[in-house]
Amino acid sequence: MATLQTASAPPRAIKQHRVLRSLPYLAPAVFLYGIFLLYPMIDSVRLSFFSWSGYATAPQEFVGLKNYRYLLTQDTVFWTALRNSMIWVVLSVAIPMVLSLLMALALNQRIWGRNAFRSIFYIPSVFASITVAAIWRWIYNPTMGVINQAFEAIGLGGLAHEWLGDPRTALYSIFVASVWQGVGFNMVLFLAGLQSVPAELVDAAKVDGAGRWQVFRNVTWPALRPTTIVVVILTIINSLKVYDLVVGMTGGGPAQSSQVLALWSYQQSFSNHNFGAGGAVATVLLILSLCLVVPYLAWSMRGED
């Protein structure tokens, strides 16, 4: 009887019934999500309108937009961090994505040892970021580092450089370590996307005389659209919140040249004991993330439709 009643019910009622029935199973996850993610996010935005040193005994004084005016007019480090974060986003979307796609296309072919190469390229993405920072800090060591030692060995000692100690190269040196760590993860995503490319379409294109570039442009690339959307969104978000590598390799130096928004928010709050300014930087980072991700997602979904 219950089955007959459910079958005769309108689709909207059935959908509402399923939603209500699933709520008890979703409640624990929603509760944890709210406690550990939503509440800190909302409280950080709230603190951006207050002046507070972070001590429990210190009062929280409402100051309105004072923290934002301070960031925009007096805090020169904020503008350096904002510029570096945007440079990181642009480079991350351009370089690692292209490399990971090329690696996925190569390792999707029937070549000797491709499973071993897949594992080798993916392993760095499993390492903790602070471990990657320690590895690359040793690689960049000005006296015993692998890079400078290699230059000395081949007679190009003049190219040896203090990579992390030079304000002109510090940020880009950290970015190279980020590429080494993250390109394997994107490669795996693209490899998964390549498995969904219909083989019959590829074969049909080859029968029609299409070359490799034409097959990629007209068959493979359109089929990779959903994967590309995911990779771009994850790349933008991870680029804006980069923190561990910068802390582990330079701490934002030298002379704040490698400072980024996520690190500056932390330092304002916990090092300078200015939780209002730290919350303001975090809020700007949140707004920036939404301004980059939401329009791209809306555009990509419209193109999908």
TrEMBL record:
Membrane association type: Multi-pass membrane protein
Transmembrane segments: 22-42, 86-107, 119-139, 170-194, 215-237, 275-299
Keywords recorded for this protein, A-Z: Cell membrane, Membrane, Transmembrane, Transmembrane helix, Transport
InterPro entries reported in the protein's UniProt record: ABC_transporter_permease, MetI-like, MetI-like_sf
Pfam families: BPD_transp_1
Coiled coil: none
Compartments in which it is found: Cell membrane
Residue span, ABC transmembrane type-1 domain: 82-298
Domain of life: Bacteria
SUPFAM superfamilies the record matches: MetI-like
PANTHER family (UniProt xref): ABC TRANSPORTER PERMEASE PROTEIN (PTHR30193), INNER MEMBRANE ABC TRANSPORTER PERMEASE PROTEIN YCJO (PTHR30193:SF37)
Family named by the database record: Belongs to the binding-protein-dependent transport system permease family.
Protein name: Sugar ABC transporter permease
Organism of derivation: Actinomyces ruminis
Upper classification of the organism: Bacteria, Bacillati, Actinomycetota, Actinomycetes, Actinomycetales
